[in-house]
Sequence to fold (703 residues):
Amino acid sequence: MADTDTALGTPAGRREGREKVTGTARYAAEHTVPGRLHAWPVTAAIACGAVRAIDTRDALGLTGVLAVLTHENAPRLADADDPTLAVLQNSRVPHRGWPIALVVAETLEAARAGAAAVRVEYDVRDHDVTLTESHPGAYVPEEANGGYPGHRERGNPEGAFASAAVRVDTRYRVPPLHNHPMEPHAATAQWEGPRLVAHDSSQGATAVRATLAALFQLPEAQVTVMSEHVGGGFGSKGTPRPHVVLAAMAARQTGRPVTVALPRRFLPTLVGHRAPTLHRVRLGADGQGSLTTLLHEVITHTSRLKEFVEQAAVPARVMYASPHSRTTHRVVPLDVPSPSWMRAPGEAPGMFALESAMDELAVALGMDPVELRIANEPDTEPDSGKPFSSRHLVECLREGARRFDWAHRDPRPGTRSDGPLLMGSGVAAAVYPVLIQPSTATAQALPDGSFTVRVNATDIGTGARTVLAQVAADALGVPLERVRTEIGNSDLPSASLAGGSSGTASWGWAVHEACTRLRADLAEHTGPLPEPGLTASADTAGSADADSGYARHAFGAHFAETAVDTVTGEVRVRRLLGVYAAGNILNSRTARSQFIGGMTMGLGMALTEGSTMDAAFGDFTEADLAAYHVPAHADVLAVEAHWIDEHDAHLNPMGSKGIGEIGIVGTAAAIGNAVHHATGVRYRELPLTPDRVLAGLPPFMAR
Fold:
């Protein structure tokens, strides 16, 4: 039997923890190879048009500046599958903030000064960056992100809504949101003869290697990408980004290693954002609260470079039983930076709208919002008709209500106060799909009794090294301290990216298979091991990505208590509580951290985070952390994360579901519903900033 420290579910500490807190963990910009140069991008100051002329003479005259790459002299790239990577290839300016030059210098300071000295003339064209519900350019895409159909319809949703006994017809707005990981996007690239080596802040070195090989027309075997330590990503590092391409171009041009570290204010325009979403939700129900129809219509924007459609109506296809349904997306191409992945894409904004509307329906019915959700539990997934592999949302709601003391809540809005503070509580459900991708891994037994597991997984702060070692130790039946993990290098067995809450389920499946095979080989082996040891490998292609006859999702319930200051309009969250059904929890310590991190990000989405697109300049106004406000410790007073035991035989060998994103999914709606309960005012646009809250309070309430 395995040592108890290897048992999945135990709170094993992070293996890289000491390196991180002592500063010895090196990130992409910290690889100080001999002769390294620094590069600083010059970005477009217009929203649409072209570069007419670019004068680099003053920049090249500065001490320390060695080169300025522009579309006129930069290395030519092969056609990119992702147009956002086709940098410095032509004079086009598709949006404000697009890279139009790269200054390379001996020091970071010289590169920055050189970038300021570059002079650019533009041919400016009219631009359109404003998303409206009636925009004439809107269309229904064939697919939203993730391959989901852009439109789905069952029954007669309009007719059922018109005849429903109780109806809710309401609109919600979620602004652009931005990924601001602690470590900004950076890469250090060098050419070793024909070989390209890059340290990249990425959620998936395998994908970056394939992309760089294609762009520079190299065999993949001649490209190595390392992402040993990554300081967060939240989706923005899930696909290759321009910084690593620019670093490789500059290194080729100069013949020396080059680091490109994007300034934080460049992130909103260069690494993606959560596109704004405008929602219309219509719910029809009978007098007992059973939904008869559900309509969720979303409009969002994309760039003119490529189509990216936030799949915000998709969760409504999963959540509640209803004989009639319509879920549809419309998208408008605008002169904006390309939106991209951000934690729980689709689910986070979509569930804010749906769960807020469910709360409005509960009020219209005079029904407890927990009981309303329970009353509309589906027997099978409404959209596909598939049985759920497991669905314990009701248990999450019941357990959360018990822990939150929901039964003693006075349902009447505005009944609890403490001086100028109005208190309220709210609830919302959460859902996130089970996503699993094929991966490969090897497991090696060495003569000294230790084991090494190799897989090109990426640890973006989630504790992947630790959990994969636990999976290996459990499969091998050995103590955890005897297992070593190697990750974060594209020369290792290829693996999927750290995204979509799919990492552990995908990599762990391959690790489990490799270790299971190694254990069988060891059982048959006689005598001492040879010097190189024994190695077993696994490739889960064909199994991890096989079609399932089950609808596979994680579920959760969020509860929030808020205090609304009627003098300042400030909203404080006094308590957040989440209960999750997410399969087998593999490490209780890192799992709790992930749940709490997601809930904290949801709190930011509800109260502080939001971006404004400046119509005149085509730029995001909130471009740094001085203007784009993320929660601080003082904003997060009491956050509790719990889970129920859930056994699901239709997932992977560990029985696990992803947990990195479900924490954000229902939090904003729970907080918004709590603010309504506190004030009696329904706020339908995020974030709930003091000015917005004060403006919504009736005169007799504002003090």
User: Anything to note?
Assistant: The chain is about 25% helix and 25% strand. The longest strand covers residues 291-303.
